[in-house]
Amino acid sequence: MTDANAEKLYTLHGMWCTSCALAVEGSLKRLEGVREVSVHYPSATLCISGTPAITQLSNLAAKVKRLGYRLTELEPVADAHARLEEESRYLTLRLMVGSLFGMWTMLASLLIYAGALPNVQVEQVVAWVSGAFSLPVVLFAGVPFYRAGWRTLLAKRPGMDVLVSLGVIGAVMVSVWLLWRGSAEVYFDTAVMLIVLLLVGRLVETLCRHRGLKALDALTLPNVNITAWQEKAWISLPVDDVSTGMRVELAPGAMVALDGALEEPGWIDTASLTGESLPRHFQAEQTIYAGCRYLGATPIVMQVSAGVGQRRLDRLCDEMRRYQAKKGELQKLADRFAAWLSPLALGLALLTLPAALLFGLGWEDALVRALSVLVVACPCAVGLAVPLASLAGSGQAMQQGIALRDPAALETLARIRSVALDKTGTLTTGSHAVLHWLAREGFDEQMLQRKLSAAVAGSEHPLAQALARWASNPSDQPPEQCIEVNESPGEGRRVQLSSGEWLTVGSAHWLARQRIVLPAQAEDATLAFASQVVIADEAGWLATLYLTDQPVGDAEPSVKRLLASGYVVAMISGDRQGAVNWLGERVGLPREACYAQRSPEAKARLLQGLPSPTLYVGDGLNDTLSLVAAEVGIAPLSASEAAREGASAQLMTPGVGGVVKLLGIAQRTRRTMVQNLFFSALYNTLALGLVIVMAIPPLIAVLAMAASSLTVTLNAARLAWAEPE
User: What angle do CA 332, 334, 339 make, to 5 degrees?
Assistant: First the structure.
C-alpha cells in the first residue's frame, strides 16, 4: 500500500440490515479522498481505501456517528461473537414480545375474517382489541426497523427498513381510520406479521452470521501467560506483553503462542496449523508458528520473531476478514438492485393511491392497494442473497484448510477453465528420496546402507540428508562410525570410517576430478533426469544412487480429479525437461502438458495462452509473477512469503488436494449466490407488478415477502451446514 492510498478495516456497530450497510457506504463514498468503500453487513466490517488522512478512524467515526452508527477499530473474533450473542438476545426479546401479543392480534383478526362473531357490534369491539394487542408489537418490537429506516433516510439512501416502517405505520393508520369510520375490516395483523416474520428472519440470519465467524476461530489463540526471559530471570508474562526478540520457554506439551526460531532442535506437532498427522523434527534456528505444539520431554527456548497481532495466524485472520469485507461482482449487482428497488417501491406506492382513485376504487381499497405495494417491495432478500452465501462459502473453505485472501476469489474460481501447477514445492515435497541404486557385485542393500549412513552423517547438503534418511535403519548390526571428514562444499566429501576404510561420496564429475574411474555399469542412461550421487572406496567405484524430488501424496489423485472435471491442466516448471516429464507421468499428465525450463516471465506468458480464467498454484519467488498474471493464484503450505502475498488463497494443509476442494466449494457457493439473487430479484419484480394490477391483501404480501427472505437465508445456511465433499 503506497502513501497515496491506504486501506483500513473497521467494525461498524448498530447496523440492523443491509440497508444500513448501503447507507453508510453511500455516505462515506461522498467524502473527498475516498477511493473505495465496502460495508459487509454479515461481519459488520467496513473496508475503506483512500488517502491516509481520510481513512483515519477519528475522521470516519464522526461522520458515521451523525448517521446513528458507531465505528471502532476492528474487533477481535471473540468480541464479534459476544456482539452477535448480544444481538441474538436483543432479537429474541423483541421476537418474544411480538409473538406473544401478535398471537392475540392474529386470533382477533381471524375471528373477524371467518365471520365467527355474532354481530357487527362485537366485531367492532374485537377489532379494537386487535389494535390494542398490536401496540406492544408496533411500539416495542418494531422499534429497530423505525430507527434503521430513519438512519438510512438521513444518509439519503432509503432502503428496506423505510419500506417496512412505512408499511407498519400505514397498516396501523389505515386500520385506525377504518375503525373511526365504523368498519371492522382492520389490518393490525398485517403490521404485526410484518414485524414478527422479519424478526424471525433477522434471528435466523444472526445465527448464520455467528456460524460464519467459526471460520475465524481456527485462526485465533487464547490469551495465556508464557514464561519469558526478562531482567536476567524467567518470569510469567501475558502473551500480549511479549515483544519481538524476547526469549520464551516452551514447556513440554504446550501450545506455541508466538512465532519464533528455536534455539535448539525439537519435535513439533504442526497438525493444528498444517493438518499433518505426524510431528516434525525442527532444527535450531528453524521458524515455528503459533498454533503448533511442542512435544519434547524437556523445556526448550525460542526467540520470538512475531508478537500478538503480527503472527502468521493473525495475518491470515486479517486477510480473511478483509476478504469478507469486500464484495465481488454478484454482491455489487445485488446492492445496485436493492438500491434502486426501494425508491422505486416508494414512488409506486405514492402513485398507486391516486391511480386507484382515478380508476374508481374507493379510499379504503386505494389505501389498501398502496399499503400492499409498500409491504411486498421490501428488498431484504436481495440484500442478503450474496453476502450470506459468500460468508458460508469462505467458512467451508477455512474448515477445509484454505484461507481466502481475494474478495472475488470464490466467484472467479467457480468459472476457472485452466489450472497451471508449479513443480518443485507444489507438486513435489521439495525434498529428495532414493529412486534407484546400482552397486558393485557382492554388495547388497543393507551393506550399502551401513557404509552410506556413516559417510553422509552430519552433512547439511540436501542430497546427503536424503541419503541419510534412506540409510537410517540398515540392519540390526551397529552402524559404522566416521572418524575423519574432508569436505568440498556442494560437491562431495571423503570420510574415514572407524574400520580405517576411506569412502568418497559426491557427484560423478567431482569423483572424476579425484581421478576415480567409473565403469560403464556405474550409470543408468534411463535415469538421466534424476540427481546422481556416486560412492567409491579404496577399490574404486562402489555404488551409484539416483534421487528425485518425490510427488506429494495427493498429487496424482488431485490431477486426475481436475482432468476428469474438464479443466485444462498444465505443469509449468523451471526444472529440466527429463525431471518434469518423469513427474508428469507419475501424476497422470501427458507430455504436451508439461512445460520445462521456463523463466518466471515465460511462465506468465504461457499462462496467457491457456483458456481463461486461469488458476496458478506456485510456492516460490519465481512464481510471484505467474500468481499475479493468473485470474486466481493459490500458494501451497510451504510457499515463500512473496508467493503468499501474491496469492488469492493459501492452502494450510500439505499437498494440492486443497485446490480441488476449493474449486468445488467455489462452484457450490456461486451456485447458491446465483440462486439467491435470481429468486429474490424475480420475487420483487413479479410481486410489484402483481400488487399494482390486482388486489393482494397486505397480510398475503407480508407472508410472501417473509417467505422470500427466509428462503434466501436458509439456502445460504444449507451451504454453511452441508458436510464438505
Answer: 95
Examine residue 322 and state whether it is found in any structural domain, yes or no.
no
What is the rounded CA–CA span in Å between residue 493 and residue 505? 5
Same domain for 113 and 236, yes or no, is no
Residue 321 main-chain phi, psi, to 5 deg: -70, -30
pTM over 0.70: no
CB 192 within 8 A of CB 137: yes
Q: Tell me the per-residue pLDDT of 584-634, one tens digit each, with 9 for 90 and over.
A: 888 889 988 999 888 777 888 898 889 988 999 988 767 877 887 788 889
Residue 311: helix, strand or coil by DSSP? coil
User: Is residue 400 a part of any domain in this protein?
Assistant: no
Length of the chain: 725
For residues 450 and 480, membership in a common domain is answered with yes
Tell me which amino acid residue 549 is: D
pLDDT in tens, 217-260: 655 677 788 899 988 889 999 988 888 999 999 988 888 889 99
Closest CA to 281 of 300, 296, 263, 260: 296
Q: For position 14, which CATH number holds? A: 3.30.70.100
Counting Cβ atoms within 10 Å, is residue 399 exposed (0-12), middle (13-18) or buried (19+)?
A: middle
Quote the CA–CA distance of 538 and 557 in Å, as a whole number. 46
Cα separation of 170 and 153, whole Å? 17
Question: Radius of gyration (Cα) for the chain, nearest Å?
Answer: 34
Contact by Cβ (8 Å): 239, 224: yes
**Terminal CA-CA length for the chain:** 37
Q: How many structural domains comprise the chain? A: 5
Partners of 70 in beta bridges:
13
